[in-house]
Amino acid sequence: MAERAVAGLSNRVSRTADRLNDYAQGSGGNLLAAVTGVEKLAGGASPLQAAVSAGVSKLGHTARETFESVKESLTGGTGKGGTKKLKLTNIVEQIDIGVPIDLAYDQWTQFADFPKFTKKLEQVEQVSDEKLTWTGKVFWSRRTWESTIIEQVPFERIVWRSKGAKGYIDGAVTFHEITPDLTRILVVLEYHPRGAFEKTANIWRAAGRRCRLELKHFQRHVMTEAVLHSDDIVGWHGEIHDGEVIEDDQTARRNETEDNRADEEADEEMEEAEQDEAEQHEDEEADEHDEDQFATDEEEQPEPPRHRTAARKSPVTRRSRMSQGASR
C-alpha cells in the first residue's frame, strides 16, 4: 500500500510538473514559481501548504520585478559598462484655437502672462529677449529652470533649450493657419526628469497630461480674454537664430510697417490699373457700339431713285423728216 501511495504521488507530481512547464512556456515563465509548491508537495507537504508556498513565491517574484522597474525609473537605469541610460519622455500635443494666427502668436510670446491662466506655473521672468526663468510647483515643492530660445520666427515657430537641477524641458511650438480665423498650435516636448518627484510622476506620464491641460487653459484664455482685449496684446515680433537676436522687436515692427505701406501702395496701384483697364475696356466697347450703330444706319437708308434715259431717235424718223424738207 505504501508503494502504491508513493507511486500515485509520483504520478500526480509528474503530471503537475508537465502542465506547469507547458503553461510556463506559453505565458513567458511567470508561473514557474509554482514549481516550489510542487517540490514541497513531493516532499510530503499538504496540498494547501504547497499552494500557499507557490503563491508566496510568485508574489515575491512579482514584487521584485515591480521594485526593479520603479528603481530603474527613479535612478535612470544602467546600460552596458555601468553607464546610465538616457531617460526622457517625448510629448506631442496640438490644439485648434478660433482666432487669427497673429493673435495666437502674440499671446504665446507674452510669457509673463502664463501664470495667469496655467495651474502649476507661479512665475516667469523675461531676463532678455532670448532667456527666461521659470518657477513652477511639483507636488508641494518648487522647481526653477532656465530656458534659452535658440530659434524664433514670427508667426511660425519657437524652439528652445532648457536646464535645471531637478529636470528640464526642451521643445518647440509651431503655429499653422487653418483658416483666417482658425489657428492650429503644435507642441513637441522632450522632458528630462531628474528629481525623485519628477521621475516618480514620469512613470504615469504626468508631464504629457499636464501639457494637454495647459494647452486647454491657453485656448480658453485666448478665446475669452484675448479676443475681447486684442488691442492690449502686444507680442514680440523679433527674430532669433542660433540663440542670437537677429532682429529686435522695434526693428521688426518698423519693417512690418514699411512692408504694409508698400503693400498698400502696391494694392492702390493695382486697383488704379484695374480701374483704368476697366475704363479703357468700356471706351472700346462704346466705340464698337457706335461703329455698329453707324453701320446699321447705313444699311437702313433707302436707295436713291433711278433716272430714265432719253429714248434714242430711230433713223427712220430722221430720214422721213429729211425727205419732207427736200420736198418743201
UniProtKB/TrEMBL annotation:
Residues 243-328 are annotated as: Disordered. CDD domains: SRPBCC_8. This is Cyclase. Residues 307-321 have a biased composition (Basic residues). InterPro entries: COQ10_START (IPR005031), ORF3 (IPR047137), START-like_dom_sf (IPR023393). Pfam families: Polyketide_cyc (PF03364). Residues 97-218 form the Coenzyme Q-binding protein COQ10 START domain. Coiled coil: none annotated.
